[in-house]
Amino acid sequence: MKTSLLFWGALAVFLGAALASDYENEEEERIIVDNKCKCAKVTSRFVPSKDNPQENVLERNIRIIVPLKSKQNITDPTSPLRTTFVYRMSELCKQCEPMEVELTDRIVTAEPSNNCTSTDACYTYDRNKCYTTTFPFLYGGEIKTVRAALTPASCYAD
């Protein structure tokens, strides 16, 4: 139990440091998460406070695009439409690769999360991955099973 609490505490500190550090230009908007699988993008920037204009506050913008024609199984065109979309910020913001974080006067390499295997479903196609499906095709009075690319640009070389 203590190990679990220690891990989550360290993760919270890491994410806080990673998400709020390294702002040279306060007007610049930083991309924190750009998850193409879940169609979600999280950005942040410092803006003047409404209460005290001399003080800056961190503003987060969360953009979620809900694909209305998304299938429950995106690799099967005959599956029913997806009606439930689940977005967990802890899952979206999970870092699976080591990254360098500047803490006060030194640079520290932050270790990735140890839970990077994702079983969550994608809500849209990963355009870099080849998705195929099979379907029955009637040709010359004979039904043949044909394999078709759902994302042709990533399945075939130029």
TrEMBL record:
Record GO biological process: humoral immune response
Record keywords: Signal
A single MF term (Gene Ontology): immunoglobulin receptor binding
GO cellular component: pentameric IgM immunoglobulin complex
Signal sequence bounds: 1-20
Alphabetized Pfam families for the sequence: Ig_J_chain
Highest taxon of source: Eukaryota
Signal as UniProt keyword: yes
UniProt xrefs under InterPro entries: Ig_J
Name of this protein: Joining chain of multimeric IgA and IgM
